[in-house]
C-alpha cells in the first residue's frame, strides 16, 4: 500500500477508534462479548451437529444447499448457475474474496457488479484491494476517490462525498435492474431455523438478494444454533466495526419468495428470489477445527487490524486476501499452506498482542502466529535474514 494511502487509512482508523471508545466498555457490550464468545465456541465445537441440522432445515425451507470442499468446487458450482449471464450483482463478502470469485467470473466472461459503495470504488481503482472488512475504501481520500470515479465515468466528478455517491449509486442501480442473479455472503446461518442472516447499512444486500436467483456463499464455520444467536453476533460485530449499536439493516432469509394469500394456496415467486442457493464452503476450515479452530471464532469486525502496529504501517500487504492482518495470516495456513502463510506475513508480526487485547471474542492471534512460526521453521520456510542472525549467534555468541 502507498504511504499516502496508509496515512488516509490511519486517519480513518483514528476516527473509528474515537467513535466507538465510549461504547466498548459499556456494561451491555461487555455482557454481549461474553455471550458471543460462548456462542462462537459452541458453534465451532459442535459444527458437525449444527451442519447436519442446518442443512436439513435450509432444504426444508426451500433452499438448495451445495457443500463445497474446496474453493474450486465453490467456483464451479457458482459458474454453473451464472454461466449464461453477462453480469451478476454482488455484495461485500470475505468468503467470495477468499475464493477470488470476482476474478474467476470476470475471467470467464461474467461481469461482476459490486453494489457496496466502498467495494465499487475499490473495484474501479488500479489495485482493487480493500483495507478493512467493513470499510473497504478506508485508505482512499475523497480527492483520490473523485479521480478514480472521474476516470471511470469519463467526466469531472467533484471531490465531494455526495457528488461521488450520486453518480456511483445511479450507475449501480441502472446495471442492477438488468441483473438476474445476486451473490451475497452471510454473517451467520441459523441451523435450527434454517435461515441466512446478513447485515448491512447501505440496503444493497436487500436489493441483491431479491433478484431472481440468490446465491449465498458462506463458510461452514458460520453456523450457529438460532436466529437470536445470530442477532447477538451481528450486534457485537456492528459495535466493534462501526461504533454503532445496531446496523441499518439485518436480513433474515429463510427461503425463496412465496405467498399463501389466496385460499391458503402456496404460490412461489412473489417479489423476492425464485431460487436461493446456499454454497457452504469448507476450504480448510475442517483442518482448522482439527487443530483447535480458534481462528474460526472470528466475527469479522476488523478491530484487530485497527490496533495492529504492522497493519497501520504496511496496510493490506499484511494478511491474506480479504482476511487482513495477523488473523488472516493464521487462516491462510488452513486455506492454503505454510508457504502462503509465510507470504502473507507470518514473520512480519511483532507479536505485541494488541490484536488479542482488542478482539471481542479473544482470539489469541499472537500465540497462534508463534506456533505457526515454529512449524514453518521446522519445515525450512523462514526469512534468510533470520538464518544469518542465527549463524552469527552460533559463531560469535551475539546477533550483532
Ligand atoms: S480476529 Fe477478532 S478482532 Fe479480528 S476481525 Fe476477527 S473478531 Fe474482530
Automatic annotation (TrEMBL):
Key word Lyase present: no
Q: Which GO terms describe its biological process?
A: lactate metabolic process
Q: Which UniProt keywords apply?
A: 4Fe-4S, Electron transport, Iron, Iron-sulfur, Metal-binding, Repeat, Transport
The protein's superkingdom reads Archaea
Give the molecular function GO annotations: 4 iron, 4 sulfur cluster binding; oxidoreductase activity
The record's InterPro entries line, in alphabetical order, gives: 4Fe4S_Fe-S-bd, 4Fe4S_Fe_S_CS, FTHF_cligase-like_sf, Helical_ferredxn, LUD_dom, LutB/LldF, NagB/RpiA_transferase-like
Protein name per its UniProtKB record: Lactate utilization protein B/C
4Fe-4S ferredoxin-type domain span = 285-319
Amino acid at each position: 500500500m502507498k504511504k499516502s494511502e496508509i496515512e488516509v487509512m490511519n486517519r480513518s482508523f483514528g476516527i473509528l477508534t474515537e467513535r466507538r471508545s465510549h461504547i466498548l466498555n459499556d456494561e451491555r457490550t461487555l455482557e454481549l462479548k461474553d455471550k458471543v464468545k460462548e456462542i462462537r465456541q459452541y458453534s465451532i465445537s459442535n459444527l458437525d451437529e449444527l451442519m447436519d441440522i442446518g442443512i436439513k432445515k435450509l432444504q426444508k425451507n426451500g433452499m438448495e444447499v451445495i457443500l463445497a470442499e474446496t474453493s474450486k468446487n465453490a467456483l464451479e458450482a457458482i459458474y454453473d448457475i451464472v454461466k449464461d449471464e453477462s453480469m451478476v450483482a454482488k455484495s461485500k463478502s470475505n468468503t467470495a474474496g477468499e475464493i477470488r470469485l470476482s476474478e474467476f467470473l470476470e475471467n470467464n466472461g461474467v461481469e461482476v457488479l459490486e453494489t457496496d459503495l466502498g467495494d465499487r470504488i475499490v473495484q474501479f481503482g488500479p489495485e482493487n484491494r480493500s483495507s478493512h472488512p467493513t470499510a473497504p475504501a478506508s485508505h482512499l481520500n475523497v480527492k483520490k476517490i473523485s479521480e478514480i470515479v472521474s476516470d471511470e465515468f469519463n467526466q469531472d466528478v467533484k471531490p465531494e462525498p455526495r457528488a461521488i455517491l450520486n453518480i456511483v449509486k445511479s450507475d449501480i442501480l441502472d446495471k442492477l435492474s438488468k441483473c438476474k442473479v445476486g451473490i451475497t455472503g452471510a454473517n451467520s446461518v441459523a441451523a435450527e431455523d434454517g435461515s441466512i442472516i446478513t447485515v448491512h447499512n447501505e440496503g444493497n444486500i436487500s436489493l441483491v438478494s431479491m433478484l431472481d436467483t440468490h446465491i449465498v456463499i458462506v463458510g461452514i464455520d458460520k453456523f450457529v444454533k438460532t436466529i437470536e444467536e445470530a442477532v447477538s453476533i451481528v450486534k457485537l460485530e456492528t459495535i466493534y466495526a462501526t461504533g454503532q449499536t445496531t446496523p441499518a439493516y439485518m436480513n433474515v432469509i429463510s427461503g425463496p419468495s412465496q405467498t399463501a394469500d389466496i385460499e391458503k394456496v402456496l404460490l412461489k415467486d412473489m417479489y423476492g428470489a425464485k431460487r436461493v442457493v446456499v454454497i457452504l464452503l469448507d476450504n480448510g476450515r475442517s483442518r482448522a477445527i482439527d487443530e483447535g479452530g480458534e481462528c474460526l471464532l472470528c466475527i469479522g469486525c476488523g478491530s484487530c487490524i485497527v490496533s495492529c502496529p504492522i497493519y497501520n504501517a504496511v496496510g493490506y500487504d499484511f494478511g491474506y486476501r480479504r482476511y487482513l492482518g495477523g488473523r488472516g495470516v493464521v487462516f491462510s495456513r488452513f486455506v492454503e499452506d505454510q508457504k502462503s502463510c509465510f507470504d502473507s506475513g507470518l514473520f512480519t508480526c511483532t507479536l505485541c498482542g494488541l490484536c488479542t487485547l482488542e478482539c471481542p471474542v479473544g482470539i489469541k492471534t499472537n500465540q497462534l502466529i508463534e506456533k505457526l512460526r515454529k512449524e514453518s521453521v521446522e519445515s525450512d520456510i523462514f526469512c534468510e535474514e533470520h538464518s544469518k542472525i542465527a549463524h552469527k549467534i552460533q559463531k560469535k555468541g551475539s546477533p550483532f
